[in-house]
Amino acid sequence: MKMFERTEILAAIENQTAKGIPILAAGSSCGLVAKCAALGGADMLVVYSTGLSRLMGLPTSRIGDSNARTIEMADEIRNVVSDVPVIGGIEAWDPVRLDLDRLLDRFWAAGYSGVINYPTISTMGDKWRDRRGRVGLGFDREVEMIALARKKEIFTMAYVASAADATAMTEAGADCIVPHVGATRGGLVGHDEGQAIQAAVKRINEINAAARAVRDDVILLAHGGAVSEPEDTEEVYRSTDCVGFVGASSIERIPIERAVHAVTKAFKAIPMPRK
Fold first, then answer.
1. Helices in the chain by DSSP H: which ranges?
2. For residue 81, what is the domain's CATH number?
3. pLDDT tens digits for 50-71?
4. 190: in domain
Protein backbone atom coordinates (compact mmCIF):
# COMPACT_ATOMS: atom_id res chain seq x y z
CA MET A 1 0.00 0.00 0.00
CA LYS A 2 1.21 3.48 -0.84
CA MET A 3 2.62 5.68 1.90
CA PHE A 4 2.50 9.46 1.47
CA GLU A 5 5.49 11.61 2.27
CA ARG A 6 4.94 14.87 4.12
CA THR A 7 5.96 16.98 1.12
CA GLU A 8 3.54 15.05 -1.09
CA ILE A 9 0.60 15.74 1.22
CA LEU A 10 1.51 19.42 1.50
CA ALA A 11 1.77 19.74 -2.28
CA ALA A 12 -1.66 18.17 -2.73
CA ILE A 13 -3.16 20.58 -0.18
CA GLU A 14 -1.57 23.56 -1.92
CA ASN A 15 -2.87 22.34 -5.28
CA GLN A 16 -6.44 22.10 -3.97
CA THR A 17 -6.51 25.41 -2.15
CA ALA A 18 -4.95 27.22 -5.12
CA LYS A 19 -8.01 26.15 -7.10
CA GLY A 20 -10.36 27.42 -4.38
CA ILE A 21 -11.30 23.88 -3.33
CA PRO A 22 -11.51 23.34 0.44
CA ILE A 23 -9.59 20.56 2.15
CA LEU A 24 -11.62 17.80 3.78
CA ALA A 25 -10.11 15.49 6.38
CA ALA A 26 -12.74 12.80 6.96
CA GLY A 27 -13.00 10.85 10.19
CA SER A 28 -13.09 7.21 9.15
CA SER A 29 -13.16 4.51 11.81
CA CYS A 30 -14.24 1.59 9.64
CA GLY A 31 -13.55 0.41 6.13
CA LEU A 32 -16.96 1.27 4.72
CA VAL A 33 -16.83 4.88 5.89
CA ALA A 34 -13.24 5.24 4.66
CA LYS A 35 -14.12 3.81 1.25
CA CYS A 36 -17.13 6.08 0.81
CA ALA A 37 -15.28 9.16 2.06
CA ALA A 38 -12.47 8.52 -0.39
CA LEU A 39 -14.94 8.08 -3.25
CA GLY A 40 -16.58 11.34 -2.18
CA GLY A 41 -13.32 13.22 -2.60
CA ALA A 42 -11.83 13.40 0.91
CA ASP A 43 -8.25 14.68 0.83
CA MET A 44 -7.28 12.76 3.96
CA LEU A 45 -8.80 10.08 6.17
CA VAL A 46 -8.38 10.53 9.92
CA VAL A 47 -8.63 7.46 12.13
CA TYR A 48 -9.60 7.95 15.78
CA SER A 49 -10.01 5.24 18.40
CA THR A 50 -12.95 7.30 19.68
CA GLY A 51 -14.63 6.77 16.32
CA LEU A 52 -15.39 3.23 17.44
CA SER A 53 -17.75 4.62 20.09
CA ARG A 54 -19.60 6.56 17.40
CA LEU A 55 -20.01 3.39 15.35
CA MET A 56 -21.37 1.68 18.48
CA GLY A 57 -24.18 4.24 18.65
CA LEU A 58 -22.63 6.03 21.62
CA PRO A 59 -21.54 9.61 22.23
CA THR A 60 -17.91 10.14 21.25
CA SER A 61 -15.94 8.44 24.02
CA ARG A 62 -12.47 7.13 24.70
CA ILE A 63 -12.72 3.36 25.11
CA GLY A 64 -9.86 1.11 26.17
CA ASP A 65 -6.28 1.37 24.93
CA SER A 66 -6.47 4.22 22.43
CA ASN A 67 -3.12 3.80 20.71
CA ALA A 68 -3.42 0.03 20.39
CA ARG A 69 -6.89 0.33 18.90
CA THR A 70 -5.86 3.00 16.40
CA ILE A 71 -2.88 0.94 15.25
CA GLU A 72 -5.14 -2.11 14.82
CA MET A 73 -7.65 -0.09 12.77
CA ALA A 74 -5.08 0.79 10.10
CA ASP A 75 -5.33 -2.59 8.35
CA GLU A 76 -9.10 -2.33 7.87
CA ILE A 77 -8.90 1.21 6.48
CA ARG A 78 -5.94 0.64 4.18
CA ASN A 79 -7.38 -2.64 2.94
CA VAL A 80 -10.02 -0.70 1.00
CA VAL A 81 -8.34 2.70 0.44
CA SER A 82 -4.89 3.07 -1.08
CA ASP A 83 -4.89 6.43 -2.86
CA VAL A 84 -5.69 8.80 0.03
CA PRO A 85 -3.35 9.63 2.96
CA VAL A 86 -4.47 8.08 6.25
CA ILE A 87 -3.77 10.07 9.43
CA GLY A 88 -3.65 8.34 12.81
CA GLY A 89 -4.80 9.81 16.10
CA ILE A 90 -2.06 9.42 18.72
CA GLU A 91 -2.63 9.69 22.46
CA ALA A 92 0.72 11.27 23.26
CA TRP A 93 0.17 11.08 27.04
CA ASP A 94 -0.21 7.28 27.03
CA PRO A 95 1.58 6.22 30.24
CA VAL A 96 2.50 2.75 28.93
CA ARG A 97 4.13 4.10 25.77
CA LEU A 98 6.52 6.76 27.01
CA ASP A 99 8.93 6.41 24.08
CA LEU A 100 7.32 8.80 21.57
CA ASP A 101 9.94 8.07 18.93
CA ARG A 102 9.07 4.38 19.01
CA LEU A 103 5.34 5.15 19.10
CA LEU A 104 5.59 7.29 15.97
CA ASP A 105 7.53 4.53 14.23
CA ARG A 106 4.78 2.06 15.10
CA PHE A 107 2.11 4.32 13.62
CA TRP A 108 4.16 4.78 10.44
CA ALA A 109 4.77 1.02 10.20
CA ALA A 110 1.04 0.40 10.61
CA GLY A 111 0.39 2.51 7.51
CA TYR A 112 -0.33 6.00 8.82
CA SER A 113 1.18 8.71 6.61
CA GLY A 114 0.54 11.40 9.22
CA VAL A 115 -0.50 11.93 12.83
CA ILE A 116 -2.84 14.11 14.86
CA ASN A 117 -2.87 14.64 18.63
CA TYR A 118 -6.06 12.82 19.54
CA PRO A 119 -7.32 12.14 22.16
CA THR A 120 -6.15 15.58 23.21
CA ILE A 121 -5.84 17.22 26.62
CA SER A 122 -6.27 20.59 24.92
CA THR A 123 -10.05 20.32 25.28
CA MET A 124 -10.19 18.79 28.77
CA GLY A 125 -10.08 21.82 31.04
CA ASP A 126 -7.48 23.39 33.29
CA LYS A 127 -7.85 21.00 36.24
CA TRP A 128 -7.22 17.86 34.19
CA ARG A 129 -4.43 19.51 32.24
CA ASP A 130 -2.73 20.66 35.45
CA ARG A 131 -2.94 17.23 37.10
CA ARG A 132 -1.58 15.40 34.08
CA GLY A 133 1.08 18.05 33.54
CA ARG A 134 2.45 17.57 37.05
CA VAL A 135 3.49 14.01 36.18
CA GLY A 136 4.82 14.87 32.73
CA LEU A 137 1.80 13.58 30.84
CA GLY A 138 0.04 16.81 29.95
CA PHE A 139 -0.37 18.92 26.83
CA ASP A 140 3.40 19.38 26.63
CA ARG A 141 3.63 15.71 25.64
CA GLU A 142 1.36 16.39 22.68
CA VAL A 143 3.56 19.30 21.65
CA GLU A 144 6.65 17.09 22.03
CA MET A 145 5.04 14.41 19.87
CA ILE A 146 4.21 16.87 17.08
CA ALA A 147 7.73 18.34 17.20
CA LEU A 148 9.27 14.88 16.98
CA ALA A 149 7.03 13.89 14.08
CA ARG A 150 8.09 17.07 12.28
CA LYS A 151 11.76 16.16 12.75
CA LYS A 152 11.00 12.74 11.30
CA GLU A 153 9.32 14.44 8.30
CA ILE A 154 5.91 12.95 9.12
CA PHE A 155 2.87 15.06 8.20
CA THR A 156 1.28 16.57 11.31
CA MET A 157 -2.11 17.97 12.34
CA ALA A 158 -2.70 19.51 15.76
CA TYR A 159 -5.98 19.99 17.59
CA VAL A 160 -5.92 23.11 19.77
CA ALA A 161 -8.60 24.73 21.90
CA SER A 162 -6.87 27.99 22.78
CA ALA A 163 -4.57 30.62 21.34
CA ALA A 164 -1.78 29.55 23.71
CA ASP A 165 -2.01 25.95 22.53
CA ALA A 166 -1.99 27.13 18.92
CA THR A 167 1.20 29.09 19.55
CA ALA A 168 2.91 26.08 21.11
CA MET A 169 1.90 23.69 18.35
CA THR A 170 2.85 26.07 15.55
CA GLU A 171 6.25 26.65 17.14
CA ALA A 172 6.62 22.85 17.33
CA GLY A 173 6.24 22.72 13.55
CA ALA A 174 2.70 21.42 13.08
CA ASP A 175 1.74 21.47 9.41
CA CYS A 176 -1.96 21.99 10.19
CA ILE A 177 -3.54 23.75 13.14
CA VAL A 178 -7.10 22.60 13.80
CA PRO A 179 -9.09 24.95 16.08
CA HIS A 180 -11.29 22.61 18.15
CA VAL A 181 -14.34 24.63 19.20
CA GLY A 182 -16.23 21.95 21.09
CA ALA A 183 -17.98 18.61 20.72
CA THR A 184 -19.87 18.39 17.43
CA ARG A 185 -23.53 19.23 17.77
CA GLY A 186 -26.35 17.43 16.02
CA GLY A 187 -27.54 13.91 15.44
CA LEU A 188 -28.85 11.39 17.96
CA VAL A 189 -26.05 11.76 20.53
CA GLY A 190 -24.61 15.16 19.64
CA HIS A 191 -24.34 18.26 21.77
CA ASP A 192 -27.28 20.45 20.77
CA GLU A 193 -26.50 23.14 23.32
CA GLY A 194 -23.57 25.49 23.07
CA GLN A 195 -22.15 28.28 21.01
CA ALA A 196 -23.70 29.50 17.79
CA ILE A 197 -21.75 29.59 14.55
CA GLN A 198 -20.85 33.26 15.13
CA ALA A 199 -19.24 32.43 18.47
CA ALA A 200 -17.40 29.49 16.90
CA VAL A 201 -16.04 31.77 14.18
CA LYS A 202 -14.82 34.23 16.82
CA ARG A 203 -12.91 31.49 18.65
CA ILE A 204 -11.50 30.12 15.42
CA ASN A 205 -10.19 33.56 14.48
CA GLU A 206 -8.52 34.00 17.87
CA ILE A 207 -6.76 30.65 17.53
CA ASN A 208 -5.83 31.25 13.91
CA ALA A 209 -4.32 34.64 14.71
CA ALA A 210 -2.06 33.09 17.34
CA ALA A 211 -0.88 30.43 14.90
CA ARG A 212 -0.28 32.88 12.06
CA ALA A 213 1.70 35.14 14.40
CA VAL A 214 4.26 32.32 14.58
CA ARG A 215 4.24 31.07 10.99
CA ASP A 216 2.54 32.35 7.85
CA ASP A 217 2.67 28.97 6.14
CA VAL A 218 0.65 27.02 8.71
CA ILE A 219 -2.51 25.38 7.29
CA LEU A 220 -5.72 26.13 9.18
CA LEU A 221 -8.62 23.67 9.31
CA ALA A 222 -11.82 24.06 11.35
CA HIS A 223 -13.46 21.44 13.57
CA GLY A 224 -16.30 20.89 15.98
CA GLY A 225 -19.03 22.66 17.88
CA ALA A 226 -21.51 24.49 15.70
CA VAL A 227 -19.45 23.71 12.60
CA SER A 228 -21.11 20.39 11.84
CA GLU A 229 -22.89 20.68 8.48
CA PRO A 230 -21.53 21.52 5.01
CA GLU A 231 -23.36 24.86 5.05
CA ASP A 232 -21.65 25.76 8.33
CA THR A 233 -18.26 25.55 6.65
CA GLU A 234 -19.38 28.15 4.12
CA GLU A 235 -19.55 30.71 6.93
CA VAL A 236 -16.18 29.54 8.25
CA TYR A 237 -14.52 30.01 4.86
CA ARG A 238 -16.13 33.41 4.46
CA SER A 239 -15.17 34.71 7.90
CA THR A 240 -11.88 32.99 8.80
CA ASP A 241 -8.55 31.98 7.25
CA CYS A 242 -9.43 28.28 7.44
CA VAL A 243 -9.00 26.45 4.14
CA GLY A 244 -10.74 23.24 5.11
CA PHE A 245 -12.62 21.15 7.63
CA VAL A 246 -11.87 18.13 9.80
CA GLY A 247 -15.08 16.11 10.20
CA ALA A 248 -15.45 13.28 12.69
CA SER A 249 -19.07 12.97 13.86
CA SER A 250 -19.98 15.09 10.84
CA ILE A 251 -18.71 12.36 8.52
CA GLU A 252 -18.99 9.01 10.26
CA ARG A 253 -21.88 9.41 12.71
CA ILE A 254 -24.55 11.94 11.72
CA PRO A 255 -24.81 10.91 8.03
CA ILE A 256 -25.09 7.22 8.97
CA GLU A 257 -27.80 7.96 11.55
CA ARG A 258 -29.82 9.84 8.98
CA ALA A 259 -29.34 7.39 6.12
CA VAL A 260 -30.23 4.24 8.06
CA HIS A 261 -33.20 5.92 9.74
CA ALA A 262 -34.52 7.19 6.39
CA VAL A 263 -34.11 3.96 4.42
CA THR A 264 -35.64 1.88 7.20
CA LYS A 265 -38.71 4.13 7.25
CA ALA A 266 -38.88 3.95 3.44
CA PHE A 267 -38.89 0.15 3.44
CA LYS A 268 -41.56 0.06 6.13
CA ALA A 269 -43.70 2.54 4.22
CA ILE A 270 -44.11 0.30 1.14
CA PRO A 271 -47.62 -1.20 1.20
CA MET A 272 -47.99 -4.93 0.84
CA PRO A 273 -51.04 -6.08 -1.18
CA ARG A 274 -53.34 -8.44 0.71
CA LYS A 275 -55.08 -11.32 -1.06
1. 6-18, 31-39, 51-55, 66-80, 100-110, 126-134, 139-151, 163-171, 197-214, 230-239, 249-252, 254-269
2. 3.20.20.70
3. 999 999 999 888 889 999 999 9
4. no
